[in-house]
């Protein structure tokens, strides 16, 4: 049903894009548009669940801080050739991850328990240069997940090359490039070692590019000069985040641009000017059902589990999860990293 609503809404703290904006656009037709629409639709759908049981019953969602949010539903293997290369160590790792039992984890794969997976990313005391770089690499690599696979909760089948002399050599190369610096310039370190991790192909520079955006893009201006692979997203009237453009998306796509521009328009506005910012929109042009079921051509197999439910209820009631009783709290758009590297190095964010 068509309805006229404001482009921007006050969520009680900030001015945000009306989450129903996506339904005011025509149905997505390109892979970029479908991925963009699906991402927003899943955020909205997860936000309608009013209790943890309902949230957890949808494989695309998870409870975070008492709120039902979208989970890690994107399959990192979609990014082969885009963010990592065939035959690389990361590719081998993603070949092991689908194995969910220790007994079946054989060949060039090694089973690691949840405790072991968590321990390798921890840093304490005054670690050596090699230990620091090794820990950060494991931290970044541990962010590579598949839907339904949670290495730090259940353990995981991993590539043997992450735990032997092959990985030691990668760490040693990083130490050599760092050359004793206490600054740990990870864009430089990653440029030196990423061919050993993610291979040599058009997507073989994604790790250093991703880190470059986070490291150097502190404003729209610096983000633009950091590289053509970066884009800036406002999160409030005075601040925002620079991140890499999702390697599966074409930033020139009209659908992608429409959503990004609308979100930035609202996020830059003050709460007092929120209601008058932007233009009225006609929601309901495209149904939530369409947005939740129009999958990109590469989204096959079990990456999107289950049949999406009907359109979200307008205003669910009940206790957590959920914020202030709203059906779909507009997400605070902290710029998140895209798969396969969901985690930036802890030190890659200069304060």
Distance between the termini: 47 Å
Number of strands: 10
Count up the helices: 12
Radius of gyration, whole Å: 21 Å
Q: Given the helix and strand composition, which structural class is it?
A: alpha+beta
Give the biggest beta sheet. Answer: 2 strands, antiparallel
Tell me, what's the shape?
globular
> Share of helix among residues?
25-40%
Low-confidence stretches: 301-337, 347-351
Strand order of the largest sheet: 1-10
Strand content bin: 5-15%
Q: What is the H/E order?
A: EEEHHEEHEHHHEHHHHEEHEH
Provide the residue-averaged pLDDT.
85
What are the salient characteristics of this protein?
two-stranded antiparallel sheet; 12 helices; 351 residues; alpha+beta; 34% helix
Overview of the molecule:
Residues 316-327, 336-351 have a biased composition (Low complexity). Residues 299-351 are annotated as: Disordered. By secondary structure, this protein is of the alpha+beta class. The chain has a domain at 86-183. It is 34% helix and 12% strand. Strand 8 and strand 9 (239-244) form a beta hairpin. The protein is globular, with a radius of gyration of 21 Å. The termini are far apart.
Architecture blueprint of SSEs:
Blueprint: E1 3-5, E2 8-10, E3 15-17, H1 31-47, H2 52-57, E4 61-64, E5 67-70, H3 89-96, E6 109-112, H4 114-119, H5 129-141, H6 151-154, E7 156-159, H7 165-178, H8 186-198, H9 206-216, H10 220-226, E8 230-236, E9 239-244, H11 254-267, E10 281-283, H12 288-293
Antiparallel strand pairs: 1-10, 2-3, 4-5, 6-7, 8-9
Region (Disordered): 299-351
Biased composition (Low complexity): 316-327, 336-351
């Amino acid at each position: 049903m068509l309805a006229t609503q404001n482009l921007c809404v006050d969520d009680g703290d900030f001015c945000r894009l009306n989450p129903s904006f996506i339904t005011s656009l025509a149905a997505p037709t390109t892979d970029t548009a479908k991925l963009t629409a699906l991402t927003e639709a899943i955020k909205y759908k997860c936000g309608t669940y009013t209790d943890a049981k309902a949230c957890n019953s949808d494989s695309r969602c998870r409870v975070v801080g008492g709120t039902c949010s979208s989970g890690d539903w994107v399959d990192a293997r979609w990014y082969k050739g885009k963010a990592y290369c065939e035959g690389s160590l990361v590719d081998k790792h993603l070949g092991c991850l689908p194995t969910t039992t220790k007994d079946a984890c054989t060949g060039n794969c090694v089973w690691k328990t949840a405790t072991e997976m968590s321990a390798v990313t921890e840093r304490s005391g005054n670690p050596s240069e090699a230990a620091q770089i090794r820990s950060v690499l494991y931290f970044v690599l541990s962010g590579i997940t598949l839907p339904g696979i949670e290495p730090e909760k259940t353990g995981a089948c991993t590539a043997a090359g992450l735990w032997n002399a092959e990985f030691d050599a990668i760490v040693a190369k990083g130490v050599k490039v760092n050359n004793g610096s206490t600054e740990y310039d990870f864009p430089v370190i990653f440029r030196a070692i990423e061919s050993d991790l993610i291979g040599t192909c058009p997507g073989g520079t994604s790790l250093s590019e991703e880190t470059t955006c986070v490291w150097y893009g502190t404003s729209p201006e610096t983000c633009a000069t950091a590289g053509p692979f970066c884009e800036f997203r406002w999160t409030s009237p005075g601040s925002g985040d620079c991140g890499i453009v999702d390697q599966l998306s074409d930033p020139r796509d009209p659908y992608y641009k429409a959503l990004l521009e609308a979100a930035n328009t609202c996020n830059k506005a003050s709460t007092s000017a929120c209601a008058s910012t932007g233009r009225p929109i006609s929601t309901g042009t495209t149904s939530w059902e369409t947005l939740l079921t129009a999958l990109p051509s590469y989204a096959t197999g079990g990456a999107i589990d289950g049949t999406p439910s009907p359109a979200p209820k307008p205003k669910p009631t009940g206790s957590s999860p959920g914020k202030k009783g709203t059906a779909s709290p507009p997400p605070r758009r902290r710029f998140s990293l895209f798969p396969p590297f969901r985690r930036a190095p802890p030190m890659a964010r200069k304060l």
